[in-house]
């Protein structure tokens, strides 16, 4: 198991990236990590080094604010480009970056190519629920302006991903909307709703309201990447705010303070459930390799878990399974025809 | 102060509506409430009645799932139609309904008309923040497919509303997006961002990520009604889920249980801050009257507070102030020209 890690991706790079890699290697005794970035600086930071860490020199950095335009194609000396290219060349089994997700997606597409028939790869992330298992949301930020066919692909890929990760036959899939009734939704969801209803291979359960994401009634929820990002960031922000308010309220009285001290250990599992770092990165589904995008604010723990996630996805043959999902059989139509007919191409 | 209340709007109507009206009248000693709905049933439920409650008979009910189509125009015997029409006829100062928000909006538009230049009225709701004052979001569900000009109007109306409610001169306005950088956003937000930057009358602070809604750094956040509804419902669902998990975690150990008992009183202000019922309904901004849309799952408390909100908006001359906001002066262009030029009409 060899994983390439963009040492300069993320708000706290390269320190937390190196820490995360070392922690991962501590737990995964046969794995190797290849860091991409400034060789000189990384060598200095690594000190005497690690037998299963190597460095591939990449002097150029891609800024978070840079547009994922075609210019990126020519930035072959960037730590991100090298990171993905190592996987594309077969030198690593998977790649991980906490850098610009737009750039990560653009370069993953360019270098690892798409799975047949997938127009837009999607980011999938776990969302904590009242039940034991999380709900998987996609697309959580890769594609801001989507068409119904893209959301259909997300549903098929989410179906395959949940089958792998949750080990269930027919994951329950919901389409994020502003109400449960068929008359709700916007132009995009209404058209997508009709498409999804017509695919017997997936267990499409209709519209899912924002409040129902957390009940655990849905295994997978589908939306465009703009809405997905808003859901993700809103949830993160609200959870942090609530924990903050909770602590402030506890501290406002002596009894409250005492109660908090007594209850503090009981809060730990909740905090863990909400911490994105616990889940590691978000795989980009629909490309011909395992490419994990980590949160820009990744901690060492998040990087470590992203490396574990990459390893798991490789071992479970994720790419092969996604390929199979896109080859879905409709009772009356061949897959390609089914897709094309339904979007009127 | 006379307010019409749709007695048959909402999931728990008419019982909680009657309870809410009675509680409101208990607190607002000079107000009157006119209930619209089945006279026979309402009379039976009211028993010996209340000196400041009257009933206007409306035998027809509008189902939550019904499309807010032109057919609604002809449903003049519905409790919702009568409720709004009373305000349109000048018989009441404001109207409140917890029924279908789409129908409420369509009929409010039809009967109360729009404020000059406002193409799409918007729902505004408070969102709790880390600071004392909430942030006001619009549109929170009235318009699912918006154009940049609509979001510009939302910003102008949000500006005026926050001035009234928060008593500040230059409310800080953010545009919901999937990142802070200018290169982020979708087609809609990118175009809107350019429009908003060009209006000197408002204090536009740029893109606002989902996580920043709760910091209190923004007084007003703008988005289309689909995204707004998703933000609102996601927040509600997550807050409920967290409170549930919190309690479950507390109960999982003896110390936790004891801590919870000691801290319970400290939790009350937090619960209050998160409960939409505390804030009452959401005013529909941009129409020529005070029209309050309550949550479909409104409790008696929510109905009571919606009636209080209606009263406050009438007393503060909300409609007049919104009219003034739409007459904004640009240094170089007349308002109508400014708007039209910027959207290329």
Please, could you describe this protein's structure?
The structure is a homodimer of 345-residue chains. Chain A is α/β, with parallel strands linked by helices and 345 residues long. Chain A has twelve helices and twelve strands. Chain A has helices spanning 15-27, 39-46, 79-88, 101-112, 148-166, 187-197, 225-250, 254-274, 276-279, 300-315, 318-326, 335-342, and strands at 2-6, 32-37, 53-57, 94-97, 122-123, 125-127, 135-138, 172-176, 203-208, 220-222, 282-285, 290-293. Chain A has a seven-stranded mixed sheet with strand order 3-2-1-4-12-11-5, sandwiched between helices. In chain A, strands 6-7-10-8-9 form a five-stranded mixed sheet, with helices on both faces. Chain A starts with a strand and ends with a helix. The model of chain A is unreliable at 330-334 (pLDDT under 50). The interface between A and B is large, with 70 and 70 residues.
Total number of helices of chain A: 12
Q: Biggest β-sheet of chain A: count, sense, barrel?
A: 7 strands, mixed
As a percent range, the share of helical residues of chain A equals 40-55%
Which segments of chain A are poorly predicted (pLDDT under 50) over 5 or more consecutive residues?
330-334
SSE ordering of chain A: EHEHEHEHEEEHEHEEHHHEEHHH
Oligomeric composition of the shown chains: homodimer
Largest interface: A-B, 70 and 70 residues
The tally of strands of chain A reads: 12
Q: Largest sheet of chain A, order of strands side by side?
A: 3-2-1-4-12-11-5
In whole angstroms, the N-to-C terminal distance of chain A is 42 Å
